[in-house]
Design a protein that fits this description.
Blueprint (H helix, E strand, L loop, with lengths): L4 E5 L6 H17 L5 E6 L4 H7 L6 E4 L16 H6 L4 E4 L2 H7 L3 H13 L3 E6 L3 H5 L3 H13 L4 H4 L3 E4 L13 H19 L1 H5 L3 E4 L4 H8 L6 E4 L6 H8 L3
Parallel strand pairs: 1-2, 1-8, 2-3, 3-4, 4-5, 5-6, 6-7, 7-8
Bound molecules: phosphoenolpyruvate (PEP).
């Protein structure tokens, strides 16, 4: 059966020293209070090796926030999936709306990134979600379905089963505006039905689908109580141990 997961996305925040301190704090909190779900932090590339050295990945998984769409070579400034894996990280966020919006990531680039992440035994946390105009004009279900079909549906069922999905309505990211638990559940059920139509019900039932967008301790329990919401991808609230643990303890 699918796992419940709470994953932090630190984005472009913290120095290495601050990040190591935060990771240790979260690790220690999990050592004291065992979580009822998998817990992951996705941190800047610069932090990965140092954070890997101070956490117990049986308690707290580690991931990157992106990886390159090429294996290696003359791509100045890029970080490959194999480099990420060599730090000890096990996860990678791919297709975050900020990468799509500010760095022009397309479904074609994302297909390459997913293939390279899987080839390096990284678990992609693949993000999908509509912008506000698409929510308001009623096309959100089609938009999200197309994002899934274009980037993921050339995968075998075996490879698809290695993914974690994160539904993140762009209008809810960093805005303080959360999707209601019912809006999240409707979309998660739609995503699961989309997966079932392509790969079958068993694969769909085994896929963890996280909700992301202004998730915090005060709304996490209501969101996570929904049958198709299998946890959260947490931005701002993952930067404070108490807030992040408040969300983890919603399970
Ligand atoms: C995110 O960027 O993945 C996210 C969910 O951000 P926030 O929690 O800050 O809305």
């Amino acid at each position: 059966m699918r796992k419940n997961i709470v994953a932090g996305n630190w984005k472009m925040n913290t120095t290495v020293a601050e990040g190591v301190a935060l990771a240790k704090e979260v690790n220690d909190a999990l050592a004291q209070n065992k979580a009822n779900c998998d817990v992951v932090i996705c941190v800047p590339f610069t932090h990965l090796a140092s954070v890997a050295a101070v956490i117990d990945q049986n308690l707290l998984g580690l991931g990157a926030e992106n990886c390159a769409d090429h294996t290696s070579g003359a791509y100045t400034g890029e970080v490959s999936a194999s480099m990420v894996a060599s730090t000890g990280a096990k996860y990678v966020i791919l297709g975050h709306s900020e990468r799509r919006q500010y760095y022009g990531e397309t479904s074609a680039t994302l297909r390459e990134k997913i293939a390279l992440a899987l080839a390096n035994n990284l678990t992609p946390i693949f993000c999908i979600g509509e912008v506000l105009a698409e929510r308001e004009n009623g096309t959100y279900n089609d938009v999200v379905k197309a994002q899934i079909e274009e980037a993921l549906f050339d995968l075998s069922a075996e490879d698809f089963s290695k993914l974690v999905l994160a539904y993140e309505p762009v209008w809810a990211i960093g805005t303080g505006k959360t999707a209601t638990a019912d809006q999240a559940e409707d979309m998660h059920a739609h995503i699961r039905a989309t997966i079932a139509a392509k790969y079958g019900q068993e694969v769909a039932d085994n896929t963890s689908i996280l909700y992301g967008g202004s998730c915090k301790p005060s709304n996490a329990a209501e969101l996570f109580a929904k049958p198709d919401v299998d946890g959260g991808l947490i931005g701002g609230a993952s930067l404070k141990c108490a807030d992040f643990m408040g969300i983890v303890s919603a399970f």
